[in-house]
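Can you give me the bound-state structure? Components:
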Amino acid sequence: MMVFRFDIPVRWVDTDALKVVHYSNYFRYVEEAEEELYRSLGFTFKELNEKYEIAIPRVEACCRYKVPARYGDILTVGLRLGEKTEKTMRYDFEIQRKSDDELLCSGYLKVIGLDLGTWKATTLPADLTVKVADALK
Amino acid sequence: MMVFRFDIPVRWVDTDALKVVHYSNYFRYVEEAEEELYRSLGFTFKELNEKYEIAIPRVEACCRYKVPARYGDILTVGLRLGEKTEKTMRYDFEIQRKSDDELLCSGYLKVIGLDLGTWKATTLPADLTVKVADALK
Amino acid sequence: MMVFRFDIPVRWVDTDALKVVHYSNYFRYVEEAEEELYRSLGFTFKELNEKYEIAIPRVEACCRYKVPARYGDILTVGLRLGEKTEKTMRYDFEIQRKSDDELLCSGYLKVIGLDLGTWKATTLPADLTVKVADALK
Amino acid sequence: MMVFRFDIPVRWVDTDALKVVHYSNYFRYVEEAEEELYRSLGFTFKELNEKYEIAIPRVEACCRYKVPARYGDILTVGLRLGEKTEKTMRYDFEIQRKSDDELLCSGYLKVIGLDLGTWKATTLPADLTVKVADALK
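Here's the bound-state model for the whole set.
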C-alpha cells in the first residue's frame, strides 16, 4: 500500500504553554499534507470549487495522541486511503517525528463531496478519486 | 444528567474560504468551553500545572460534522462527562447553533492526567474530578 | 472620548512555548473586540458583505508589545476611533490586563471600504461610520 | 543587500470567508520565514532558549496590506535586516505572490533579547547577530 508522506517543521505558533504542539494543530498538519497530495496530483481545493463546483468538507475527524511534538521537531505526516464510497473518502493518517520515526499520533479524516450549488452531498469527481486511488493504492 | 453550556460567537478568523468554520476550530471551541467549565469551578489549566504539577493533555479527540457554522452564528457548546477512570476523563460534546438549536457537530475529548515531573500518566487530582463530576453528574 | 471595551480571557491555544500569548493573537483579539463593537451597534461583517456589498479589510496593522499576557489572564481590549476619511477608519487599540489595568500592548488597525463587485476601494457606508463615530466619539 | 527568501503555499485554514488570507496570518508567515532563516544558520528558537537562556520576543510588528493572497497562491516571504542595536534587531519584510512577483504586503518585526532568568531585556547573543548580519548584509 502506498503512503503519501509530507514533512512539516513544528512552527513556534503551533506550540502552547506546555511547550508542545496544541492538539488541534495536528488536524491542520494533516490537511496541509492532504493539500500537498492534491497539489502533487495537479489539483487544489480551489479548482475543485471552481471547476467541479464541489467542495470536500470533512464529515469526521479523529485523532489519538501518543507522544507530543515539540518545537524543533520535523514531523512526517503519512496519508493512506481508507474506506471509499461514491461520495466519501477516508484518509488514515500517522504523524511521526522525522528524526527517529517515533509515532506521535494517528487517526483519520473522512471527506465528502459537497455540491456547491445545492450544498448537498454529491458523488466525488472521478478525476479526483481515480488519481488519489492511484497514488495511494 | 447535567450539561455545561457555553456560548461562543463564530469569529471571522475562524471561517475559511468556503465561508464556514474550519473543522479544526470546533476542537478549539470545545476546549474554550472546557476552560470555562474549569473557571466556573475555580480552576485553570495554569493552577493545575502549578499547584498539582499536572497537566491534562488530550489523548483522543473525535468529531462528526453535520451542518456547518457560519459567520454571524452564535454557537452553544454543551459538555457532558463520559467514561471516567482514575487517570482519564472523557467529555462528550455537542455544538448547536444557538438561534434554532440545530446540531452542528458532536464528538468527544479524552483527557489524561500527566505528571509534569516525570511526564508520565498519573491519577487526576480528586479536587478536580470531584468538582467536575459534581457539576456534570 | 469614548472607548469601546471588551474582555477576552486568554485561551490556552493562544499561548506558545514561552508560556505567553503569541504576538499574532493580539491582532485577533482586537478583531474580536471590533466584531463585538459592530454587534453592539447591530452590524456584522456578514451584513456588510451581503447588504452593502462591501467588506472592510485591513490596510494597515501595527502593534507595540510591552508586557506579555499569560494563560489565566483576562484581557480588556479598548478601541478608540482614530483618523477617519471617506474610505477608511483607524481604530487605535490598547490591551490591558484586567486584574491590574497594566498596559500589555497598543497599536492600531486601519480598515478600508472594499466594493465586493469591483474589488476596489469605496466609500464606507454612512450607516456604519455614523454609528461607529457616535459610539466612539 | 542580501534578502532571505522563503516560499509558503497559502493553506486552506489561513483563508477567511472573504476567500483571502486573514490579515493576522501574514505575521505568522513572516515568523515562519524567520524560523527558516535561523534553521538555515543552524539555530532554533529552542536552542536560543536552552543554550543562551534567552528568547527573542517581538516588541513591534507592523504590516501594510496592498493585495490579498488567495488559496492556491504560493507566497514568497523576503526578510531584510533593518536597524540593529545591542538588544534589538528589526526585520523588514515583503510578501510577494510567487507566480508574478506582485507585492502583497510589507512591514517589519522588531525583536528583542529577553533574559529568561530575569525576564528583562538583554544583549542579543553575538553568535546569532553575527550570523544573521552575515546572511543578510
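A couple of observations. The helical segments of chain A are 23-40, 45-51, 126-135. Residues 4-135 of chain A form a domain with the Thiol Ester Dehydrase; Chain A fold (CATH 3.10.129.10).
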